[in-house]
Write the structure tokens for this entry.
Amino acid sequence: MKYTYKNAQENVSGSTDCLILLGGEWVPHTQDPAMEYELSEESDWPDVKPCDQAEKDAYEAQQLIDQASAILESTLDNKAKEYGYDNIKTAVTYADEPIVEKFQLEGIEFRRWRSLVYAYGYEQLARIESGETITLEEFEAGIPSINL
């Protein structure tokens, strides 16, 4: 298999950190000297510049932001599904449903909760963008709970 590398930098351990093109996306990769690699002609290896730490940090922060955003969306949708709704969007539409009080009360609570979850998410994403390090576990643990 041929790999396309960019921003490779050799470590003291003899391994090489770089970004490698997999599935159409650049992903962090550590080349193992014990493994064989067949590099593509498009690779900038071995004539590469040292890895730009700012680019690597920005890439990792964006990956964390994408994963955290996905956690928020799945948390909202999964909780709505627990109550028989298709997703969070469907659940909140019932906030304006005056005919069946149970659905209206659930819809109001889902809408309130969604706002709290998004407010929390935006605060945490701002922390990540500012360079703070948080784990996905910490992020997920802090998501507000719904009061149904």
